Amino acid sequence: MAAPDQPFRTLAGMRDLLHPETAHRRRLTARFAELAELAGYQEVQPPLVEDLGVFLRVGETTDVVTKEMYDFEDKDGTRVALRPELTAGVARAFVQHHPQTPWKVWYAGANFRHERPQKGRYRSFDQVGVEALGVDDPDLDAEVVTLASMSLAAFGLRRVRLLVNSIGDHDDRARYVEAVRSYLDDRRDDLSEPARATAERNPLRVLDTKRPQDLAVVADAPLLADHRSPASEEHFGRVLAGLDALGVSYELAPRLVRGLDYYRRTTFEFVAEALDAAQNAVGGGGRYDGLVEDLGGPPTDGIGFALGVDRILLALSAEGAPDEVAPSVQVFVVDLTDGAIARDLTHELRAAGIGADRRFGGGSLKSQMKAADRSGARWAVLVGSDEVAAGVVTVRDLRSDAPQSAVPRDGLVAEIRARGTTT
RNA sequence: GUGGCCGUAGCUCAGUUCGGUUAGAGCGCCAGGUUGUGGCCCUGGAGGUCGGGGGUUCAAAUCCCCUCGGUCACCCCA
User: Fold this and answer.
1) Which strand B nucleotides have any atom less than 7 A from protein CB atoms?
2) What structural domains does chain A harbor?
3) Strand B within 7 Å of which CB atoms in A 128-187?
4) Measured in angstroms, what separates residue A324's CA from nucleotide B12's C1'?
5) Is the CB of A201 under 7 A from strand B?
6) How far is the CA of A269 from the C1' of B3 (A)?
7) CA A364 distance to own-chain centroid
8) If you write DSSP's letter for every residue of A302-322 in order, what string do you get?
9) Which of A112, A226, A296, A342 can pair with A335 through a Cys bridge, CB separation 3.0 to 4.6 Å?
10) How do residues A299-309 score in pLDDT, each as one tens digit?
Protein backbone atom coordinates (compact mmCIF):
# COMPACT_ATOMS: atom_id res chain seq x y z
CA MET A 1 0.00 0.00 0.00
CA ALA A 2 1.37 3.35 -1.02
CA ALA A 3 1.83 6.07 1.56
CA PRO A 4 -0.91 8.69 1.39
CA ASP A 5 -0.15 11.99 -0.34
CA GLN A 6 -0.61 13.63 3.01
CA PRO A 7 -0.41 12.06 6.46
CA PHE A 8 -3.77 11.04 7.84
CA ARG A 9 -5.44 13.48 10.18
CA THR A 10 -8.70 13.76 12.04
CA LEU A 11 -11.82 14.11 9.92
CA ALA A 12 -13.45 17.52 9.64
CA GLY A 13 -15.10 18.52 12.87
CA MET A 14 -13.43 15.71 14.79
CA ARG A 15 -10.52 16.29 17.11
CA ASP A 16 -7.99 14.52 19.28
CA LEU A 17 -8.38 15.50 22.88
CA LEU A 18 -5.01 15.77 24.56
CA HIS A 19 -3.72 16.62 27.99
CA PRO A 20 -4.51 18.86 29.78
CA GLU A 21 -7.94 19.16 28.16
CA THR A 22 -8.67 15.51 28.79
CA ALA A 23 -8.08 16.16 32.48
CA HIS A 24 -10.53 19.07 32.50
CA ARG A 25 -13.17 16.97 30.81
CA ARG A 26 -12.66 14.06 33.13
CA ARG A 27 -12.96 16.33 36.15
CA LEU A 28 -16.14 17.93 34.81
CA THR A 29 -17.76 14.59 34.09
CA ALA A 30 -16.81 13.25 37.50
CA ARG A 31 -18.33 16.29 39.16
CA PHE A 32 -21.52 15.86 37.19
CA ALA A 33 -21.78 12.18 38.09
CA GLU A 34 -21.38 13.10 41.73
CA LEU A 35 -24.18 15.68 41.66
CA ALA A 36 -26.56 13.49 39.66
CA GLU A 37 -26.05 10.55 41.98
CA LEU A 38 -26.60 12.77 45.00
CA ALA A 39 -30.04 13.40 43.52
CA GLY A 40 -30.77 9.71 42.97
CA TYR A 41 -29.91 9.39 39.27
CA GLN A 42 -28.15 6.23 38.11
CA GLU A 43 -25.76 5.96 35.21
CA VAL A 44 -26.97 4.67 31.87
CA GLN A 45 -24.93 4.06 28.73
CA PRO A 46 -26.95 3.51 25.58
CA PRO A 47 -24.96 2.43 22.51
CA LEU A 48 -23.53 4.93 20.05
CA VAL A 49 -25.33 3.26 17.17
CA GLU A 50 -29.06 2.62 17.02
CA ASP A 51 -31.67 1.71 14.47
CA LEU A 52 -32.32 4.82 12.41
CA GLY A 53 -35.96 4.69 13.41
CA VAL A 54 -35.13 5.49 17.01
CA PHE A 55 -33.83 8.88 15.99
CA LEU A 56 -36.50 9.61 13.42
CA ARG A 57 -38.89 9.90 16.36
CA VAL A 58 -36.82 12.84 17.55
CA GLY A 59 -38.33 14.88 14.80
CA GLU A 60 -38.68 14.28 11.13
CA THR A 61 -38.91 17.97 10.45
CA THR A 62 -35.71 18.91 12.23
CA ASP A 63 -32.31 19.48 10.68
CA VAL A 64 -30.74 17.30 13.32
CA VAL A 65 -32.55 14.31 11.90
CA THR A 66 -33.04 15.16 8.26
CA LYS A 67 -29.70 16.69 7.37
CA GLU A 68 -27.15 16.13 10.08
CA MET A 69 -27.34 12.48 10.94
CA TYR A 70 -24.50 10.05 10.36
CA ASP A 71 -26.67 7.27 8.99
CA PHE A 72 -25.66 4.28 6.94
CA GLU A 73 -26.69 0.81 5.95
CA ASP A 74 -25.34 -1.93 8.19
CA LYS A 75 -23.95 -5.12 6.69
CA ASP A 76 -27.30 -6.85 7.04
CA GLY A 77 -29.15 -4.03 5.32
CA THR A 78 -30.49 -2.37 8.50
CA ARG A 79 -30.61 1.40 8.41
CA VAL A 80 -28.62 2.56 11.41
CA ALA A 81 -27.22 5.86 12.68
CA LEU A 82 -24.70 7.29 15.10
CA ARG A 83 -26.67 8.97 17.84
CA PRO A 84 -27.16 12.74 17.37
CA GLU A 85 -28.28 13.05 21.00
CA LEU A 86 -28.97 10.73 23.90
CA THR A 87 -32.59 11.22 24.86
CA ALA A 88 -34.01 8.99 22.15
CA GLY A 89 -31.67 6.15 23.04
CA VAL A 90 -32.55 6.42 26.70
CA ALA A 91 -36.26 6.38 25.89
CA ARG A 92 -35.70 3.32 23.72
CA ALA A 93 -33.86 1.64 26.59
CA PHE A 94 -36.80 2.42 28.85
CA VAL A 95 -39.15 0.68 26.45
CA GLN A 96 -36.82 -2.28 26.13
CA HIS A 97 -36.13 -2.89 29.82
CA HIS A 98 -39.32 -1.50 31.45
CA PRO A 99 -37.58 -0.37 34.62
CA GLN A 100 -39.45 0.77 37.72
CA THR A 101 -40.62 4.34 37.50
CA PRO A 102 -39.58 6.93 38.17
CA TRP A 103 -36.53 5.96 36.19
CA LYS A 104 -33.91 8.62 36.88
CA VAL A 105 -30.70 8.24 34.91
CA TRP A 106 -27.64 10.27 34.01
CA TYR A 107 -25.22 9.87 31.15
CA ALA A 108 -22.02 11.22 29.67
CA GLY A 109 -20.92 10.53 26.16
CA ALA A 110 -20.27 11.50 22.58
CA ASN A 111 -22.85 12.45 19.97
CA PHE A 112 -22.45 12.96 16.24
CA ARG A 113 -23.93 15.52 13.91
CA HIS A 114 -22.72 16.18 10.40
CA GLU A 115 -22.74 19.98 10.50
CA ARG A 116 -20.27 22.53 9.25
CA PRO A 117 -17.85 22.91 12.16
CA GLN A 118 -17.33 26.23 13.87
CA LYS A 119 -16.46 27.51 17.28
CA GLY A 120 -18.31 25.45 19.87
CA ARG A 121 -19.77 23.15 17.25
CA TYR A 122 -18.07 19.90 16.36
CA ARG A 123 -19.20 16.81 14.53
CA SER A 124 -18.33 14.71 17.52
CA PHE A 125 -19.28 16.41 20.76
CA ASP A 126 -19.72 15.37 24.34
CA GLN A 127 -22.75 15.86 26.51
CA VAL A 128 -23.63 15.09 30.08
CA GLY A 129 -27.26 14.97 31.08
CA VAL A 130 -30.13 13.30 32.83
CA GLU A 131 -33.52 11.85 31.94
CA ALA A 132 -36.35 11.16 34.37
CA LEU A 133 -39.20 9.02 33.08
CA GLY A 134 -42.58 8.13 34.44
CA VAL A 135 -43.46 11.22 36.46
CA ASP A 136 -45.70 14.16 35.61
CA ASP A 137 -45.13 16.09 38.86
CA PRO A 138 -44.00 19.68 38.23
CA ASP A 139 -41.68 19.33 41.20
CA LEU A 140 -39.69 16.93 39.04
CA ASP A 141 -39.35 19.64 36.41
CA ALA A 142 -38.04 21.95 39.10
CA GLU A 143 -35.63 19.26 40.33
CA VAL A 144 -34.25 18.62 36.86
CA VAL A 145 -33.80 22.28 35.97
CA THR A 146 -32.19 22.91 39.34
CA LEU A 147 -29.78 20.02 38.89
CA ALA A 148 -28.70 21.45 35.55
CA SER A 149 -28.29 24.90 37.03
CA MET A 150 -26.31 23.64 40.02
CA SER A 151 -24.10 21.55 37.78
CA LEU A 152 -23.10 24.53 35.69
CA ALA A 153 -22.34 26.44 38.88
CA ALA A 154 -20.33 23.50 40.23
CA PHE A 155 -18.23 23.45 37.07
CA GLY A 156 -17.28 27.02 37.93
CA LEU A 157 -19.36 28.78 35.31
CA ARG A 158 -20.37 32.20 36.56
CA ARG A 159 -22.32 34.08 33.93
CA VAL A 160 -25.18 31.88 32.80
CA ARG A 161 -28.74 32.83 31.91
CA LEU A 162 -31.51 30.30 32.31
CA LEU A 163 -34.39 30.72 29.87
CA VAL A 164 -37.65 28.95 30.63
CA ASN A 165 -40.82 28.44 28.66
CA SER A 166 -43.74 26.06 28.32
CA ILE A 167 -44.89 25.15 24.86
CA GLY A 168 -48.01 23.46 26.20
CA ASP A 169 -49.15 19.89 25.99
CA HIS A 170 -49.70 17.88 22.83
CA ASP A 171 -53.00 19.56 21.93
CA ASP A 172 -51.90 23.05 22.94
CA ARG A 173 -48.84 22.70 20.85
CA ALA A 174 -50.79 21.47 17.83
CA ARG A 175 -53.20 24.40 18.09
CA TYR A 176 -50.38 26.84 18.53
CA VAL A 177 -48.50 25.48 15.54
CA GLU A 178 -51.60 26.04 13.41
CA ALA A 179 -52.02 29.56 14.73
CA VAL A 180 -48.42 30.39 13.92
CA ARG A 181 -48.67 28.71 10.54
CA SER A 182 -51.66 30.73 9.48
CA TYR A 183 -50.14 33.92 10.83
CA LEU A 184 -46.96 33.31 8.88
CA ASP A 185 -48.98 32.51 5.76
CA ASP A 186 -50.63 35.91 6.01
CA ARG A 187 -47.28 37.60 6.36
CA ARG A 188 -45.54 35.39 3.84
CA ASP A 189 -44.48 38.28 1.62
CA ASP A 190 -42.66 39.92 4.52
CA LEU A 191 -40.60 36.85 5.33
CA SER A 192 -37.13 36.11 4.01
CA GLU A 193 -36.76 33.31 1.53
CA PRO A 194 -35.27 30.76 3.95
CA ALA A 195 -37.84 31.65 6.60
CA ARG A 196 -40.62 30.82 4.16
CA ALA A 197 -39.24 27.36 3.68
CA THR A 198 -38.89 26.91 7.43
CA ALA A 199 -42.44 28.12 7.96
CA GLU A 200 -43.79 25.30 5.84
CA ARG A 201 -41.69 22.63 7.42
CA ASN A 202 -41.74 23.71 11.06
CA PRO A 203 -43.47 27.03 11.77
CA LEU A 204 -42.28 27.29 15.38
CA ARG A 205 -38.68 27.39 14.30
CA VAL A 206 -39.26 30.71 12.59
CA LEU A 207 -39.96 32.24 15.97
CA ASP A 208 -36.37 32.21 17.14
CA THR A 209 -34.89 33.54 13.94
CA LYS A 210 -31.98 35.95 13.99
CA ARG A 211 -32.71 37.73 10.74
CA PRO A 212 -33.89 41.30 11.29
CA GLN A 213 -36.39 41.03 8.46
CA ASP A 214 -38.06 38.04 10.09
CA LEU A 215 -37.78 39.42 13.59
CA ALA A 216 -40.14 42.19 12.58
CA VAL A 217 -42.72 39.65 11.51
CA VAL A 218 -42.21 37.46 14.54
CA ALA A 219 -42.69 40.36 16.90
CA ASP A 220 -46.44 40.32 16.24
CA ALA A 221 -46.84 36.56 16.08
CA PRO A 222 -49.43 34.82 18.24
CA LEU A 223 -48.30 34.21 21.77
CA LEU A 224 -47.92 30.77 23.18
CA ALA A 225 -49.40 31.85 26.48
CA ASP A 226 -52.73 32.43 24.71
CA HIS A 227 -52.83 28.85 23.50
CA ARG A 228 -51.97 26.96 26.64
CA SER A 229 -54.78 25.02 28.29
CA PRO A 230 -55.60 25.72 31.95
CA ALA A 231 -53.98 22.41 32.89
CA SER A 232 -50.76 23.28 31.07
CA GLU A 233 -50.81 26.73 32.56
CA GLU A 234 -51.14 25.32 36.04
CA HIS A 235 -48.34 22.82 35.51
CA PHE A 236 -46.06 25.56 34.28
CA GLY A 237 -47.01 27.78 37.21
CA ARG A 238 -46.01 25.08 39.63
CA VAL A 239 -42.70 24.51 37.88
CA LEU A 240 -41.89 28.20 38.23
CA ALA A 241 -43.02 28.18 41.85
CA GLY A 242 -40.65 25.28 42.45
CA LEU A 243 -37.75 27.16 40.92
CA ASP A 244 -38.58 30.20 43.02
CA ALA A 245 -38.69 28.09 46.15
CA LEU A 246 -35.34 26.52 45.34
CA GLY A 247 -33.75 29.88 44.67
CA VAL A 248 -33.01 29.24 41.01
CA SER A 249 -33.17 32.44 39.02
CA TYR A 250 -34.55 32.29 35.51
CA GLU A 251 -36.01 34.42 32.75
CA LEU A 252 -39.28 33.68 31.01
CA ALA A 253 -38.66 33.27 27.30
CA PRO A 254 -42.04 33.16 25.55
CA ARG A 255 -40.42 32.48 22.18
CA LEU A 256 -38.01 29.80 23.32
CA VAL A 257 -38.63 26.94 20.91
CA ARG A 258 -36.22 24.11 21.12
CA GLY A 259 -34.93 22.21 18.16
CA LEU A 260 -36.39 18.78 18.61
CA ASP A 261 -39.99 17.87 17.87
CA TYR A 262 -40.62 15.79 20.93
CA TYR A 263 -40.68 18.62 23.45
CA ARG A 264 -43.90 19.28 25.38
CA ARG A 265 -44.70 21.72 28.16
CA THR A 266 -41.58 22.74 30.07
CA THR A 267 -38.61 23.75 27.93
CA PHE A 268 -35.45 25.49 29.04
CA GLU A 269 -32.05 26.54 27.85
CA PHE A 270 -28.83 27.80 29.40
CA VAL A 271 -26.87 30.53 27.66
CA ALA A 272 -23.27 31.38 28.59
CA GLU A 273 -22.78 35.12 28.45
CA ALA A 274 -19.02 34.81 28.17
CA LEU A 275 -19.42 33.13 24.79
CA ASP A 276 -19.77 35.81 22.16
CA ALA A 277 -19.76 33.10 19.56
CA ALA A 278 -22.95 32.18 17.77
CA GLN A 279 -22.94 28.86 19.58
CA ASN A 280 -23.54 30.11 23.09
CA ALA A 281 -26.15 27.64 24.36
CA VAL A 282 -24.38 25.44 26.87
CA GLY A 283 -27.34 23.29 27.74
CA GLY A 284 -31.00 22.73 27.25
CA GLY A 285 -33.83 20.36 27.84
CA GLY A 286 -37.48 19.91 28.48
CA ARG A 287 -40.38 17.52 28.77
CA TYR A 288 -41.06 14.91 26.12
CA ASP A 289 -44.24 13.30 27.35
CA GLY A 290 -45.07 11.46 24.14
CA LEU A 291 -41.68 10.16 23.17
CA VAL A 292 -41.75 6.78 24.91
CA GLU A 293 -45.12 6.02 23.37
CA ASP A 294 -43.80 6.98 19.93
CA LEU A 295 -41.07 4.40 20.44
CA GLY A 296 -43.58 1.66 21.14
CA GLY A 297 -43.80 1.89 24.92
CA PRO A 298 -46.62 2.77 27.27
CA PRO A 299 -47.74 6.40 27.66
CA THR A 300 -44.96 7.78 29.83
CA ASP A 301 -44.05 11.27 30.90
CA GLY A 302 -40.43 12.28 30.73
CA ILE A 303 -38.10 15.21 31.19
CA GLY A 304 -34.39 15.71 30.87
CA PHE A 305 -31.56 17.97 29.85
CA ALA A 306 -28.20 17.80 28.16
CA LEU A 307 -25.22 20.03 28.81
CA GLY A 308 -22.59 20.54 26.12
CA VAL A 309 -19.22 19.69 27.58
CA ASP A 310 -17.24 21.36 24.81
CA ARG A 311 -19.08 24.64 25.10
CA ILE A 312 -18.92 24.66 28.88
CA LEU A 313 -15.16 24.27 28.66
CA LEU A 314 -15.02 27.11 26.13
CA ALA A 315 -17.15 29.30 28.35
CA LEU A 316 -15.03 28.54 31.40
CA SER A 317 -11.96 29.50 29.47
CA ALA A 318 -13.64 32.69 28.24
CA GLU A 319 -14.46 33.55 31.84
CA GLY A 320 -10.82 33.09 32.75
CA ALA A 321 -11.54 30.23 35.10
CA PRO A 322 -8.45 28.63 36.66
CA ASP A 323 -7.24 25.72 34.60
CA GLU A 324 -4.22 24.28 36.36
CA VAL A 325 -3.91 20.56 36.32
CA ALA A 326 -1.96 19.00 39.18
CA PRO A 327 1.00 16.97 37.96
CA SER A 328 0.57 13.25 38.45
CA VAL A 329 4.26 12.59 38.96
CA GLN A 330 5.44 13.36 42.48
CA VAL A 331 8.90 11.84 42.43
CA PHE A 332 11.43 11.87 39.60
CA VAL A 333 14.28 9.44 39.88
CA VAL A 334 17.64 10.64 38.55
CA ASP A 335 19.93 7.67 38.05
CA LEU A 336 23.60 8.29 37.26
CA THR A 337 24.44 4.59 37.10
CA ASP A 338 23.08 2.25 34.46
CA GLY A 339 19.38 2.94 34.98
CA ALA A 340 18.51 -0.23 36.85
CA ILE A 341 18.02 1.70 40.08
CA ALA A 342 15.62 4.10 38.40
CA ARG A 343 13.75 1.11 37.01
CA ASP A 344 13.40 -0.43 40.47
CA LEU A 345 12.70 2.73 42.47
CA THR A 346 9.96 4.04 40.17
CA HIS A 347 8.31 0.63 40.37
CA GLU A 348 8.53 0.60 44.14
CA LEU A 349 7.12 4.11 44.47
CA ARG A 350 4.24 3.42 42.06
CA ALA A 351 3.37 0.22 43.88
CA ALA A 352 3.11 2.34 47.01
CA GLY A 353 0.73 4.72 45.27
CA ILE A 354 3.23 7.52 44.69
CA GLY A 355 3.46 8.92 41.16
CA ALA A 356 6.97 8.36 39.87
CA ASP A 357 8.86 8.70 36.61
CA ARG A 358 12.42 8.76 35.29
CA ARG A 359 14.31 9.58 32.13
CA PHE A 360 14.97 6.71 29.81
CA GLY A 361 18.38 6.50 28.22
CA GLY A 362 20.01 8.19 31.18
CA GLY A 363 21.91 11.26 30.08
CA SER A 364 23.91 13.77 32.01
CA LEU A 365 22.92 14.81 35.48
CA LYS A 366 21.95 18.16 34.09
CA SER A 367 19.68 16.69 31.45
CA GLN A 368 18.04 14.37 33.96
CA MET A 369 17.46 17.25 36.34
CA LYS A 370 15.86 19.24 33.54
CA ALA A 371 13.55 16.32 32.88
CA ALA A 372 12.75 16.16 36.58
CA ASP A 373 11.88 19.85 36.57
CA ARG A 374 9.64 19.50 33.53
CA SER A 375 7.80 16.51 34.95
CA GLY A 376 6.25 18.70 37.60
CA ALA A 377 7.48 16.37 40.33
CA ARG A 378 7.89 17.75 43.80
CA TRP A 379 10.90 15.59 44.63
CA ALA A 380 14.00 14.56 42.74
CA VAL A 381 15.64 11.41 44.00
CA LEU A 382 19.29 11.22 42.94
CA VAL A 383 21.32 8.06 42.83
CA GLY A 384 24.99 7.91 41.80
CA SER A 385 28.00 5.92 42.79
CA ASP A 386 28.31 7.76 46.11
CA GLU A 387 24.75 6.86 47.11
CA VAL A 388 25.12 3.28 45.97
CA ALA A 389 28.23 2.89 48.11
CA ALA A 390 26.46 4.34 51.13
CA GLY A 391 23.16 2.53 50.61
CA VAL A 392 21.26 5.82 50.40
CA VAL A 393 19.48 8.07 47.92
CA THR A 394 19.61 11.86 47.81
CA VAL A 395 16.21 13.56 48.09
CA ARG A 396 15.94 17.07 46.75
CA ASP A 397 12.97 19.40 46.96
CA LEU A 398 12.46 20.89 43.51
CA ARG A 399 10.19 23.64 44.74
CA SER A 400 12.28 25.15 47.47
CA ASP A 401 15.91 25.89 48.17
CA ALA A 402 15.94 23.65 51.23
CA PRO A 403 19.13 21.60 51.40
CA GLN A 404 18.91 18.11 49.97
CA SER A 405 19.42 15.17 52.26
CA ALA A 406 20.49 11.54 52.23
CA VAL A 407 17.82 8.95 52.98
CA PRO A 408 18.35 5.21 53.41
CA ARG A 409 17.44 3.56 50.14
CA ASP A 410 15.04 1.16 51.81
CA GLY A 411 13.27 4.01 53.61
CA LEU A 412 12.49 6.11 50.53
CA VAL A 413 8.78 5.34 50.31
CA ALA A 414 8.26 6.07 54.00
CA GLU A 415 10.29 9.25 53.70
CA ILE A 416 8.27 10.58 50.75
CA ARG A 417 5.05 9.74 52.54
CA ALA A 418 6.24 11.60 55.62
CA ARG A 419 7.30 14.65 53.65
CA GLY A 420 4.12 14.74 51.62
CA THR A 421 3.70 15.28 47.94
CA THR A 422 1.72 18.46 47.63
CA THR A 423 2.46 22.17 47.80
C1' G B 1 -25.38 22.77 2.61
C1' U B 2 -23.84 28.58 1.45
C1' G B 3 -20.30 32.65 2.03
C1' G B 4 -15.74 35.54 4.06
C1' C B 5 -10.81 34.98 5.90
C1' C B 6 -6.51 31.76 6.78
C1' G B 7 -2.73 27.28 6.08
C1' U B 8 5.48 28.99 6.39
C1' A B 9 10.01 24.93 12.10
C1' G B 10 7.02 21.12 17.72
C1' C B 11 4.13 26.09 19.08
C1' U B 12 3.02 31.52 17.98
C1' C B 13 4.08 34.17 13.75
C1' A B 14 7.21 37.57 9.97
C1' G B 15 8.23 37.10 4.69
C1' U B 16 3.34 36.92 -0.24
C1' U B 17 1.65 43.80 -2.11
C1' C B 18 5.64 44.54 -6.96
C1' G B 19 8.03 36.24 -8.34
C1' G B 20 14.79 36.58 -8.00
C1' U B 21 21.06 34.57 -3.86
C1' U B 22 21.69 29.14 1.32
C1' A B 23 13.15 30.92 3.90
C1' G B 24 13.70 34.05 9.20
C1' A B 25 12.26 35.44 14.58
C1' G B 26 10.51 34.35 19.50
C1' C B 27 9.27 30.28 22.53
C1' G B 28 10.26 25.07 22.97
C1' C B 29 13.93 21.08 22.13
C1' C B 30 19.34 19.22 22.25
C1' A B 31 24.42 20.25 23.80
C1' G B 32 28.16 23.18 26.18
C1' G B 33 29.53 27.07 29.84
C1' U B 34 29.29 24.05 35.43
C1' U B 35 33.82 15.91 34.33
C1' G B 36 27.33 15.10 40.58
C1' U B 37 22.53 19.23 40.54
C1' G B 38 16.79 21.64 37.45
C1' G B 39 14.65 26.67 37.42
C1' C B 40 17.76 32.48 35.74
C1' C B 41 21.72 33.86 32.26
C1' C B 42 25.33 33.21 28.06
C1' U B 43 27.08 30.39 23.65
C1' G B 44 26.32 26.86 19.95
C1' G B 45 23.21 23.21 17.41
C1' A B 46 19.30 20.28 15.40
C1' G B 47 14.66 20.95 13.22
C1' G B 48 11.01 23.22 7.19
C1' U B 49 7.30 18.27 1.47
C1' C B 50 6.38 27.00 2.74
C1' G B 51 -1.12 22.00 3.64
C1' G B 52 -1.40 18.68 -1.03
C1' G B 53 -1.63 18.27 -6.57
C1' G B 54 -1.29 20.57 -11.20
C1' G B 55 -0.11 24.97 -14.20
C1' U B 56 2.47 29.77 -15.82
C1' U B 57 7.79 31.22 -15.83
C1' C B 58 14.71 31.26 -17.05
C1' A B 59 13.05 31.37 -11.78
C1' A B 60 7.18 30.27 -7.38
C1' A B 61 6.35 30.44 -0.06
C1' U B 62 5.00 34.65 -3.51
C1' C B 63 0.90 34.43 -9.65
C1' C B 64 -3.37 30.96 -11.66
C1' C B 65 -6.58 26.43 -11.19
C1' C B 66 -8.10 22.23 -8.38
C1' U B 67 -8.11 19.90 -3.73
C1' C B 68 -7.63 18.98 1.68
C1' G B 69 -7.84 21.31 6.33
C1' G B 70 -8.67 25.34 9.88
C1' U B 71 -11.54 29.53 11.34
C1' C B 72 -15.75 32.89 11.51
C1' A B 73 -20.69 33.82 10.01
C1' C B 74 -25.36 31.92 7.85
C1' C B 75 -28.19 27.62 8.85
C1' C B 76 -28.80 24.57 13.00
C1' C B 77 -27.86 23.34 17.88
C1' A B 78 -25.00 21.18 23.15
Assistant:
1) 1-3, 29-32, 34-39, 49, 51-53, 68-78
2) 21-169+229-318 (3.30.930.10), 331-419 (3.40.50.800)
3) none
4) 21
5) no
6) 29
7) 45
8) EEEEEEEHHHHHHHHHHTT--
9) A342
10) 999 999 999 99
